[in-house]
Design goal:
Length: 68
């Protein structure tokens, strides 16, 4: 069976090249999406931490500083 596929690839390499190109595009898209998702989650986590820190009343912040 592999000999048959090899002989077909020798005659017309375009389908194999097209499939390899498609695989490359899909792989690069998935890597890009994962990086984008990671950056988005990091930014949201940092923003939530910043917002939560700022909502503490000033008296509690002063008490925390005295306690430490």
């Amino acid at each position: 069976m592999s000999t048959l596929l090899w002989s077909l690839a020798k005659e017309n390499p375009w389908p194999g090249l097209a499939l390899a190109s498609l695989n490359l595009v899909v792989a690069l898209t998935l890597v890009g999406l994962s990086l984008l998702l990671g950056v988005t989650i990091s930014l949201l986590a940092g923003l939530c931490a910043f917002v939560d820190r700022e909502t503490v009343p000033i008296k509690r912040q002063a008490q925390r500083r005295k306690a430490t």
